[in-house]
Hints:
Layout: H1 3-16, H2 26-96, H3 101-110, E1 113-116, H4 118-124, H5 126-163, H6 169-223, E2 228-230, E3 244-246, H7 248-255
Parallel strand pairs: 1-2, 1-3
Helix pairs in contact: 4-7, 5-6
Amino acid sequence: MQKSDTIQCFRVVAKSGGFRFCPDGMLKALPVLLVLLAITAISAQGQTVQTVQAAGQTVQAGQTVQAGQTAQADQTVQTSDNAASQTRNTAVPVSGMAPSADAASQSRQSLTFGYISYDSVLRAMPAYATAMRQLDNLKAKYEAEAKRVESDFNKKYEEFLEGQRDFPQTILQKRQSELQELLDRNILFREESRRLLAEAERDLLAPLHARIGSLLRVIGEERGYAFIVNTDNNACPFINPSQGDNIGSIVVERLR
């Protein structure tokens, strides 16, 4: 194959994009063919790189838009929070003004109570005088017995002082033991007397306390009191008369 034939063969290959078999000039045309294939591959690779770069620019543009939208949304949320905070700050004085004078007045009118001197009421009861007489009689009996024991002790002690110089040692020790025993018994009797008298007083006054407590509950419910205060022992130094009622006389009258 001549040189012109070889060039014609490559022209055909270039135009058709394919390969046409030329038997005589194949070996001579092979290097040229390889060069053409390399050029084609490089061109395709360049197009691929451009495509990738374009895609990267598109992604970067999308991220920029998304970041802008996110920042705008954050600014919108922050603006809403600031507006809400300003609204709350503005609303505070309104809520603080809620407990007005009318509300306080209604609260005072709804909360009323009574007060008494419990001891005065107790002592004004007719049954209290009766209970105290019984207690006084019991005290007198215990006191008489204590005086008798004390008198016996004083008498034996005087006899001991008079005869201790003449008593033998055994009698002296016996008299000393008797005196100590009388003294101990007198002390124990007085302690037991105080305990028994306190118990007797509680038993005598228990029905009176129960009656007063029951009546106070009834009066409190009738008058709509929140509570009833005992003013004894300076427990409540001041009570506003516009809010509390002194019901001592009412209680005494209804206990008769």
